[in-house]
Here is the input.
Amino acid sequence: MHDWNTDDMFGYQFLNGCNPVVIRKCMKLPDKFPVTHEMVKGSLQRELTLQDEIKKGNIYIADYVILDGLPANKTKKSQFYLTAPICLLYNNKWDQIVPIAIQLRQTPGGKNPIFLPDDKKYDWMLAKMWVKSSDFNLHELSTHLFKTHLISEVFEIAMYRQLSAVHPVYKLLIPHVRFTIVINAEARENLISDDGVFSKISSISGDGIEKLLERAMKTLTLKSLCFPDTIKARGMENTSNYYYRDDGMMIWKAINCFVSDVVEIYYDRDEKVQKDVEIQGFVKDVSVCGMLDSKGDKFPQSLNTRAELIEYLTAVIFTASAQHAAVNFGQFDWHAWIPNSPSTMRKPPPQKKGKVDMKYIMKTLPDRGCSSEVLGTVWALSQFQKNERYLGMYPDMYFTEEAAKEAIKKFHQKLNEVTNSIKSRNKKLTMGYSYLSPDKIPNSVAI
Here is the structure.
């Protein structure tokens, strides 16, 4: 509440807030975002040109093009507004990520100015609010609902259809689908239905939500669920203070080692994977029936090696546990202060600079009724279950083989090491990052 409007806190949330998956290294300024050195030179600190800063790897971009053209929501009381902003960010000499230019629509022009930190105070404040409002909607509907909840359900359904309860992969996955179908049924009924919460608080209409999910579906591949690949694809391997990446990599490696240990107990060579009709049926069901990928271009329809099976299962478990935790349990922390993450905007984005004051901003932000709905929703979604089972907690012991039980013990030990490492680091930070601490990661999408 005190620091939300500072540029460094705005930038920090791209790395370690609720939606840490949008920011990427800017390799080249897109033509649709005509930022010049003259515009931003006051924000650059290394006596380099903007192009040189790009070459040095100090410039990042967040582009919400996926929201472009989606129909905005309208309630009985309000017409809401939606836009698809582009935000340029800079890694300054203090290793902070800060915004240096914001364009509120995708098409440049006289009625679509590029807002800058040295603009009038309320112009810059409102521009940042527009970015955060777009981020809220993209986070809730794509990053959170679609890419953790609904995707995990696809794997669960295929698991029940294709794997017998005595199959080792069934035993491996069953703790990581606990309550998922139930919570998703609740979400369909209470969150994204015609009269659900999102019809009251979101900038995107019901038709727009459907179109957004269709667009998100087109970007979904197995590799997009593999954490190291997603970090590399966005050029974020070496960005400072990116705790989501650092902790996520530790969790991915721990899960990957555990899955590898289990797979190698039951499959001593690749041919056994190839000949396992249940495994092959499982991955084909996911691809064809779940992902509607009839050609297998994005999700494989067969697996040929143990390495492929290990990566596949690691992605399933990581998505249901760590990735969901990273984008779910910070919702109250980051969305409860409404100006920091407005769920919707009641005025259209400004077309000129110098016309905005605090009165206009207050008329733009959500009203009390909408804000209270947001508060209640993000508080509820940020709660842990009373009987929560955290990553690696398997009280219902499905495995009977001693080797598998030993693999679980080893997994426990590794997760404890990761937890202690994160706690040790957080003691040195002004604001710790704990969303990917294993002792706070539920096994499954259960809330």
